[in-house]
Amino acid sequence: MVESPEDIAAETVDYVRELQGIALGHDPDANVKDRLAALKLLLDLKDQGVTSAFLEQPEKPDPYEGDPEIEALREQLKDASREGYIARLERDIELRRFG
Predict the structure, then answer these.
(1) Which stretches does DSSP call E strand in the chain?
(2) Nearest 5°: CA angle at 87, between 86 and 88?
(3) Which long-range contacts (CB under 8 A, 24 or more apart) does 35-43 make?
(4) Is the backbone of residue 66 left (phi > 0), alpha (psi -120 to 50) or beta?
(5) Along the 99 residues of the chain, how does pLDDT read in single tens digits?
(6) On the CB side of 67, how many CA atoms lie within 13 Å of its CA?
(7) I want to staple 22 with a disulfide (CB 3.0 to 4.6 A). Which of 3, 29, 38, 51 is the partner?
(8) Could you tell me the residue ranges of all domains in the chain?
């Protein structure tokens, strides 16, 4: 059964979810311009551009907080990520410089 336009009622949150889907690349028919436009619209909506489900998620405690071994591993990961990022930037600069 096809619903008539009068039978379809959407709430703001429905439009926001649709925009979020486009902006985050979940719509296979959306191109880069569509994604950028959706992102701009969401930014223009400010707090209204975020679904309440996202805002109301309780923060989960970190079960490894205070564990020195895990903290050391996290620091190593941050350092490696930073070094990898810097290396990628340096490669990009070299590619731009020498074509």
Answers:
(1) none
(2) 90
(3) 42/16
(4) left
(5) 555 655 666 677 788 888 888 988 898 898 989 989 888 888 887 776 666 655 556 678 888 889 999 999 999 988 888 888 888 888 888 887 776
(6) 8
(7) 38
(8) 1-57, 61-99
